[in-house]
Specification:
The protein is mainly β and 275 residues long. 10% of the residues lie in helices and 35% in strands.
Length: 275
């Protein structure tokens, strides 16, 4: 596991503060994205989709709760070596909502690129993670062991397992993604169907603070319960850039419309490297 975390640290080095969308307050950002959401639609994922990444790394997770309920969500494999995967998901997806605490790893299952459900070896939550965490602190990392992998075998120095290469996002990259965001997720309001929505709008907001790279992103792709943990992707020609992990949908006070039209996430920055 240490090697995998060192690999992540090498990817997620600290970056300068990310500027917000022209200094606009969050209320204006929400109104802008709410209107933009009407211009795009979710579509079933076509078998012929051309993707520059292994879409098996955009996967799903299952949580068994103390109440007896089973909850489904999304997850994203963001780093790997020859024996282990590092998986990112929404922090609230690894909480037992009845007690607002981390579930035991044995109560989680992640669908691996090979098609089997794996139990995480370890959960690494955001600092002070709780059910009340905002999108700034609503993330968690999971460490998975590949099946039939032993650190003593000849595979130890082999090629990395399938994953979505992920690194810190800088201001110039965010500026290029203002109208190029996509979600490729399992949508459980559509019976777990895998769907894609493209050309969504993006706005970011910098919260400042001691970290200096404490930014959240907001997008106009539509989402519903279970989409949490999906990667927020930016299409840049033959490259898909992972901007962050979707946390939760936003609505106006008193609204109950589904799917929700504006989503929020923590931009990939240097905090993960310091976890």
């Amino acid at each position: 596991m240490l090697k995998l975390l060192l690999l992540l640290a090498s990817l997620l080095s600290a970056v300068p503060a990310i500027a917000d969308a022209g200094g606009a307050p969050l209320g204006d950002i929400f109104a802008d994205l709410e209107a933009a959401s009407a211009r795009t639609e979710r579509q079933p994922l076509a078998a012929s989709l051309h993707a520059p990444v292994d879409i098996r790394s955009l996967t799903r997770m299952r949580r068994y709760n103390s109440s007896g309920r089973i909850s489904d969500s999304n997850a994203t494999i963001i780093a790997a070596n020859s024996c282990q995967w590092l998986v990112a998901t929404a922090g609230h997806s690894v909480l037992d909502h009845r007690y607002d605490r981390l579930v035991a790893p044995a109560l989680l299952r992640v669908l691996t690129p090979g098609g089997h459900w794996a139990v995480p070896e370890e959960i690494i939550p955001a600092p002070e993670l709780s059910w009340r965490s905002t999108e700034r602190g609503d993330w968690a990392l999971l460490v998975l062991r590949a099946p039939n992998c032993s650190f003593a075998d000849d595979n130890r120095g082999g090629a990395p397992l399938p994953h979505l290469p992920t690194s810190t996002v800088n201001p110039a990259q965010l500026a290029q993604c203002q109208n190029s965001v996509q979600l490729l997720c399992y949508h459980f309001d559509r019976n777990g169907q895998r769907m894609i929505e493209r050309s969504c709008a993006l706005r970011t907001f910098n919260h400042g603070g001691e970290l200096g790279d404490d930014s959240t992103g907001y997008f106009s792709c539509k989402q519903d319960a279970g989409a949490s943990g999906c990667a927020v992707l930016c299409e840049q020609g033959e490259r898909w850039l992972n901007l962050g992990i979707f946390s939760k949908g936003l609505q106006r006070h008193g609204e109950i419309d589904h799917p929700q039209r504006v989503g929020a996430f923590r931009v990939v920055d240097g905090e993960l490297a310091r976890t």
